[in-house]
Each structure stands twice: as structure tokens, then as C-alpha cells.
Amino acid sequence: MTDETINRYGSLAAWVYDVDKPVGRSFGDVDYYRDRLAGCAGPVLEAACGNGRLLVPLLTAGLDLHGFDASPEMLALCRAACRDRGFDPPLSLQRFESFAFDTRFAAIVVAVGSIQLVTDPAVLRGVLRRFLDHLRPGGRLLVDLVPVDPPEQTARTRRWPVADGELWLDEQPVTADPAADVVVSRLRYEHRRGGVPVATEEEPFALRRWDAAAFAAVLDEVGFTRTVVSGGYRFGEKPRPDDAVVSLEAVRPA
Residue 151 has what DSSP assignment? Predict the structure, then answer.
């Protein structure tokens, strides 16, 4: 059983995410996925589509996108972003562990470390098998891994001005072991007016560290083949120590 209170992305968390990472903001992934999916002969699923940051640009590129997310608040932002641009893709409220579609996809995308929100390796294997089952023969799974830094020993605060005041995010470390496989923080979100909090949310946030070779081995274990590991959104190039992301692309056998 997965703890659904972790990595929840409630209303304030979703608002902060949308301000900090608006639709179209790229970490190199928008162009990368646009290129990797160009000419894709069939529908594409973005798992953990969030506010539509990546999904909307891929729709704009002419791809047939479906998406799901576990956060109602994030999904509402995604729907609004699509609607504002004249799109109406199939979007649904689902979780990694239990998502289900009648459609079989030509590709499934899990961008910028979202797969690392699944912190239990046994659960992850089930998720990857579910991805495999939802791909057409020859379909591709494209997954990003991000470095998970050792836990900070002191809290840190970020702020964003908004029309109705300020948004604050305080991050308090929970994990003490710098070598831990899972790094947990407690996030406190505040909406402030005139320096006074008018709304507050607290959520635990957890990410699992993955070595690319170990993750590739799990992909092989659950039935994927032809895994390509790429660094820094340079397809087929070996990752460098300073790369902010490592991408894996694997294929469901025909």
C-alpha cells in the first residue's frame, strides 16, 4: 500500500509549481521529447502530467497526447491550460500504481524525475510492468532520472510574488543520512498577504535515488529491451558527472 499523503501536491503546492514551472518552461526536455516523439505513429501517454508544462507543448507539436496525474489540483491546472489553448486531450485522475487505459500507446513519457516519486522498489517494478502492458509491441518508454542531493541540514525558503501577495515554500529536511536511498523533506506552503499567512499547507515529499545502470537493469528485469541511457538530453551520449538529468528509453518487444 502506498502512502497517498506523500507527494500529494495540494492546492498551494500546485499553485507554487505552476508559478515556478509554468506551461512551456523547459529544462531541455521539451525539445528533446518533441524530437524523440516526432512522427510517432500512435497515441502518447504522459504519466504524472502535472500542470501540463510538457504536455501542452507536445500537443502544440501535433502529437496525440493522453495524460494522467494523481493530484486533482494539478490536473485542474492542466485541463485549464489545455482549454485556454484550444486543446481537449483525454486527461484522468489516476496513480502510477493503478492507472488503466483501454488504449495501447506508441510511447509513454515520465519526465524530469517523476518516476522517483515511487520510492518503494517493489512498487516501482509493478509500475514498470503496468507501463509495459500499456505499450504496443515496439512501443517505447521514455523516463528521466534526476540527481537527488544529500539532505540539507538546515531549512531553506523560496518566495514568489503573485497578484494576490506572495507564495512561500519552506523546506525542512527529515532524512538525516546523506547516503539514504530515499530523501524525505517536509514542505510548508504559505500564501501571504502583507507578510501575513492567509493559507497554509504542509506535505511530506520523498524522492528515491536511482543509479541509471540499476534502473536500466530493472527495466530489463520486467521485460523491456534495447534500453538506451542518455545524459543531459543528448540522445545516445553517455551521461557526464555534471548532467542534471539522465534519460532512459526502452522498448516493449514486438
Answer: P
